[in-house]
Amino acid sequence: MVRVLVPASTANLGPGFDCVSLSLALHNEVTLEAGGEGLEIIVRGAGAASIPRDERNLVYRAVHLVLTHLGFSADGLTINVSCGIPPARGLGSSAAAIIGGMLAADQLCGQKLTRRQLLELAVQIEPHPDNLAPALLGGFTVAVRTSAGVECIRLEPPLDLRVAAAVPRYELRTDDARAVLPVTVTHADAVYNVGRAALLVAGMAAGDSSLLKTAMKDRLHHPYRAQLVPGLMDVFQAATNAGALGVSLSGAGPTIVALCRGSADTVAESMCRAFERNSIDADPLVLEVDRSGAILLEETG
């Protein structure tokens, strides 16, 4: 039996659309056991009722991919998933499922794959590596898919960085959030985001959180997805007024995250009150940065 712990993540961080992400200390746990009869999938926790328990299950699909890639049988499996990451909220639940299944399957086979190889396999299920990279590696990541594979770098964010989140109590599917994005953007907006994305990465590399207020600004998806997240700009302003270093829609949304130093609780509550003023119920969360990524908890038998 293998048990794996996988963190949540916030992608599309600020201006880093589809490439820049941060790992969060909110976790799913995946247990994988071989030797039974048929396939049994048990799911508990956040959003469990909506998660498939058959071959459509993302953890199973990831396990199956690794086992067949390594030449092992995918028959007779028991998969147990404990979900701490709410699905369809922009917190990387799908990536956590994929990475959890892959790492567990690799451990079951004797740890034959490197983390880079696991990431390359993972994009066969999820084409965008921005959530996959922090789920696997932890910390602050930049991940880009190229014709030759995935290019990824991990940086250690400032040690005092915390994340305040306001998590609305409704789901927003990634496909719906992508559908509102324009096919083209202006040159001015592209330049705006390129500069701030570079500043964000430079600030993280230098450990200079004072740059985040400017570096977290975006024109590529926030203005368009605001129609799907009532009160988005009000919540942004509430976070800034409460002392946030920078604020962003998390992934495709509807969760909003704010990077903080010492005022994370106040920021989270302020964001939720702003949502409430826009008739949206949301729950506050204060999270540390997960700096380990996916880890093996135990292996028996």
Label this structure with key terms.
single chain; 301 residues; alpha+beta; Alpha-Beta Plaits; 2 domains; seven-stranded mixed sheet; 11 strands
Task: Give the arrangement of secondary structure elements.
Elements: E1 2-10, E2 20-34, E3 39-45, H1 58-69, E4 77-83, H2 93-108, H3 115-122, H4 132-137, E5 140-146, E6 149-155, E7 162-168, H5 174-179, H6 187-206, H7 212-215, H8 222-225, H9 232-241, E8 246-249, E9 256-260, H10 264-277, E10 282-288, E11 295-299
Helix pairs in contact: 1-2, 9-10
Provide a descriptive summary of the structure in words:
- The protein has 301 residues and is of the alpha+beta class.
- The chain has two domains: 2-155 and 291-299, Ribosomal Protein S5, domain 2 (2-Layer Sandwich); 162-288, GHMP kinase, C-terminal domain (Alpha-Beta Plaits, 2-Layer Sandwich).
- Helix content is 33%, strand content 27%.
- The protein is built from ten helices and eleven strands.
- It has helices at 58-69, 93-108, 115-122, 132-137, 174-179, 187-206, 212-215, 222-225, 232-241, 264-277, and strands at 2-10, 20-34, 39-45, 77-83, 140-146, 149-155, 162-168, 246-249, 256-260, 282-288, 295-299.
- Strands 1, 2, 3, 4, 5, 6 and 11 form a seven-stranded mixed beta sheet that branches. It has a four-stranded antiparallel beta sheet with strand order 8-9-7-10.
- The model has no long low-confidence stretch (mean pLDDT 95).
